[in-house]
């Protein structure tokens, strides 16, 4: 999947920030190699580049010229006229994602403690994927299931200064996680994308024309991959990260355990 030129560029990255930036550039140049473009096209989405910030995004609206980021699209507009056709209670969001994803092979599990006693690198569970870091991710511990969903309560004290100002930050919130831990032979990126897309369309009743999907990348702890960010009316609903590679002293290589990391803020739906 990575060319020799790609590997050379990525090997030169000195930290996660540089790795993310470099890989995002590589993935943007070769979207068919790294994103579920076939599935996006089959659903009626078209790839565009934002005239405001330059990010590549997917939309079903042919005349759309800007991405879904609030800075580019005119701020948070979801409260003006909520486009979702299915009205869900807070608990109903979790029940609905179980209803949609459990028949697709995902096992609902109970949340982990918000104090991350099992994780030597973090005091608190700051995201749903944190419940499985580091030992499940590294393959040292078996996951509770290969495909699972979890309503994880998270603590983020680094967001305190933004609480009450941005309208999108909390110190404590529930992140619904869609996670997959499988071998490269079992990895099916297109299917994983369609699973969460089904939830937002069928479960939430959000029309496709109300969705903008951004191309992005993620890097952390030496692992990295591409990601898709789902926006609607200025609100980032969730981010689906496809963690497929790791950085080594000899350069990047494919992970022996590929990981899907999707985190959805329960209150945002």
Describe this structure in words.
The protein is an alpha+beta fold and 269 residues long. It has a single domain (77-268), classed as Bira Bifunctional Protein, Domain 2 (BirA Bifunctional Protein, domain 2, 2-Layer Sandwich), CATH 3.30.930.10. It has helices at 4-11, 16-29, 31-34, 37-42, 70-73, 90-101, 189-203; strands at 46-49, 56-59, 107-108, 147-155, 172-182, 212-220, 223-232, 235-248, 251-265. Strands 1-2-6-7-8-9-5-4-3 form a 9-stranded mixed sheet. Helix 6 packs across helix 7 (189-203). The mean pLDDT is 93.
For CATH, the homologous superfamily is named as: Bira Bifunctional Protein, Domain 2
Secondary structure tally, helices: 7
Content of β-strand: 25-35%
Class by alpha and beta content: alpha+beta
Largest sheet composition? 9 strands, mixed
In round numbers, the mean pLDDT is 93
Q: For the terminal residues, how far apart are their CA atoms?
A: 35 Å
- Tell me the count of domains: 1
CATH class: Alpha Beta
Helix content: 10-25%
Shape: globular
Radius of gyration: 18 Å
SSE ordering? HHHHEEHHEEEHEEEE
**CATH A-level architecture:** 2-Layer Sandwich
């Amino acid at each position: 999947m990575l060319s020799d030129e790609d590997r050379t560029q990525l090997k030169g990255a000195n930290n996660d920030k540089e790795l993310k930036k470099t890989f995002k550039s590589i993935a943007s140049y070769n979207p068919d190699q790294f994103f579920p473009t076939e599935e996006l096209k089959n659903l009626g989405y078209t790839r565009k580049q934002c005239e405001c910030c330059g990010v590549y995004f997917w939309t079903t609206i042919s005349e759309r010229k800007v991405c879904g980021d609030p800075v580019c699209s005119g701020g948070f507009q979801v409260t003006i006229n909520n486009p979702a056709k299915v009205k869900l209670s807070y608990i109903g969001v979790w029940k609905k994602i179980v209803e949609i994803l459990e028949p697709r092979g995902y096992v609902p599990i109970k949340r982990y403690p918000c104090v991350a006693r099992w994780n030597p690198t973090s005091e608190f569970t700051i995201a749903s994927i944190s419940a499985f870091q580091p030992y499940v991710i590294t393959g040292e511990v078996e996951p509770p299931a290969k495909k699972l969903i979890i309503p994880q309560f998270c603590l983020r004290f680094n967001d305190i200064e933004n609480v009450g100002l941005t309208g999108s930050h909390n110190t404590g919130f529930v992140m619904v996680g869609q996670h997959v831990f499988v071998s490269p032979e079992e990895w099916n990126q297109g299917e994983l994308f369609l699973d969460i897309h089904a939830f937002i369309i069928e479960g939430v009743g959000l029309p496709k024309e109300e969705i903008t999907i951004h191309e992005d990348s993620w890097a952390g702890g030496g692992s990295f991959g591409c990601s898709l960010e789902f926006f609607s009316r200025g609100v980032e609903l969730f981010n689906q990260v496809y963690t497929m590679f790791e950085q080594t002293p000899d350069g990047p290589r494919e992970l022996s355990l590929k990981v899907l990391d999707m985190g959805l803020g329960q209150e945002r739906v």
